[in-house]
Structure formats: C-alpha cells, structure tokens
Design goal:
It contains 6 helices and 14 strands. By secondary structure, the protein is of the alpha+beta class. It has 2 domains: about 120 residues, DNA Polymerase III, Chain A, domain 2, CATH 3.10.150.10; about 110 residues, no CATH class. Strands 1-6-7-8-5-2-3-4 form an 8-stranded antiparallel sheet. The chain is globular and about 55 Å long. The C terminus is likely disordered.
C-alpha cells in the first residue's frame, strides 16, 4: 500500500491531548484512506490510485482489517525523507514495508537512496470518523434548501483572505461567514478582542461554469452514503471566490 505526501501531511490536524489520546495519530484505513482529527478539525484523504508506480517494494504488506494508527513522529520522519519540490512529485510517496501489531515501517526513496521510518503504532480504538462526516453531511443537506448553499474557493485566495483577517483581528477567535445566492459577495466578520474593533471583509465570487462543480466521487459516496451530490445540485447555485470571469 502506498501513502502519498498529501496522505501524510494531514498529520498536522492530529491531536496532542494527554487525555483524549486516541486522536493523537494518523489513521490509515484498510483501503488506504488517511484521517486526522483533534476533535475540532477532521481531515480525510482518499487512497492513492492503485496504478500509481513507486519503486519501493511493498512486500505484500497491507494494513490490517481494522486499519492502523501511525504516531506523528513516524509520519513526520517519512515526510522529511521524501524528495522536495514539484519536479520530484512522482517520488513523494511512502510504502509500507512492515506491519505488526506493535509497529510499522514505511520506506521512501530520495536521490536513489531508500530511507525507512519506523515506530510503534497506536493500540487504542480510533474515533468513528466516517460517522462524523456522515452526520455533518446530513445536516448540510438538510439545511441547504432553506438557508444555505455551496461555494467554491481558490485555495490561495481564501488562505490569503483569512491571513489578512487574522492579522487584523489579532488573537485567535471566531469568524462569521455569510453568503447568499448566485454572485452575491461573501461577507466575513470578526472582532479584535484587544482593540474592540470589528473587522469586515467582502470576497467577490464568480459563478461556476456548467459542469465545473466538483461532484462527489465513489470514495465520498461510500462515506456519505445516500446523501449524494444530486441532492445538493438541486438546492443552490455554486459560486467560487476568484474574481469575475
């Protein structure tokens, strides 16, 4: 089984709680899906396509039927061992070379040299993350017809907008997001707790072209079950934060 850099990098979302220690891992499901959560943020990445080529032999090792929980230290070492840069993207993978009840090893290749990261694995039951995503989707699908919709962002512009808002609002706090139908600009609001100043931001969207919305694939359907993208497609038009076309 292969794990890509995106599969591993989400370990940043794993918990570090000394009490809720079951969240302090990167979860790898049997199909190669990876998950990380700290109880507030949950991130899942779909499996690496089966036809992806990577030169490290996998030795027939697969994750157990119950999946496996990798400690952040092992994952971070594997990421460090990967070659850097876009030109090396085809080599930014790790392969399981050993899995036991107590430990796991993953191998990477950088400049024709193989590197192995190994360590103990978590033994605690991992939170039922699929149920979490399913419940959230049910709420979204149920609310969309009456009060909301869906919106698409260009990641770099969204992150830049949030960085600007964060700098203006100071300490970590809440951001309130409101958006309407069609081409209505999105309004973000927050408050600087030190200066008591309110910060407002407008981000102008553009309407997506026909067929441009990212529909749910088979992997997503398998998690979200009967709440398909068809339900949402009938609700509200989609908009993307990108400036006018």
């Amino acid at each position: 089984m292969l794990l890509s850099r995106p599969s591993l990098i989400i370990v940043e979302a794993a918990g570090s709680d000394r009490v809720r220690t079951e969240c302090n891992y990167l979860r790898v499901d049997e199909d190669g899906t990876t998950v990380a959560t700290d109880g507030h943020i949950a991130v899942a990445v779909s499996p690496v396509p089966r036809k992806t080529y990577f030169p490290v032999p996998e030795n027939g090792r697969r994750t157990p039927a119950r999946g496996i929980c990798l400690r952040p230290g092992l994952v971070e070492e594997a990421i460090r061992n990967m070659p850097k840069g876009e030109k090396n993207a085809a080599m930014q993978y790790a392969a399981f070379t050993k899995i036991t009840q107590d430990s796991a090893s993953v191998a990477t290749v950088c400049h024709d040299s193989q590197h192995t990261a190994q360590g103990a694995v978590g033994r605690e039951p991992y939170p039922k993350w699929r149920g979490l995503f399913r419940n959230v989707w049910k709420k979204i699908a149920g609310m969309a017809n009456a009060t909301g919709g869906r919106i698409c962002f260009k990641r770099s512009r969204l992150l830049n907008a949030l960085r600007i808002l964060d700098n203006a609002a100071g300490e970590d706090g809440l951001v309130f997001i409101e958006f309407g139908d069609g081409g209505t600009p999105m309004l973000l609001r927050s408050v600087n707790p030190r200066t008591k100043q309110t910060v407002m931001m407008i981000v102008r969207p553009a309407t997506l072209a026909e067929g441009e919305w990212m529909e749910h694939g088979a992997w997503e359907h398998g998690i979200l079950e009967s709440f398909s993208s068809e339900n949402m497609r009938k609700k509200k038009p989609a908009v993307r934060v990108e400036g006018g076309k």
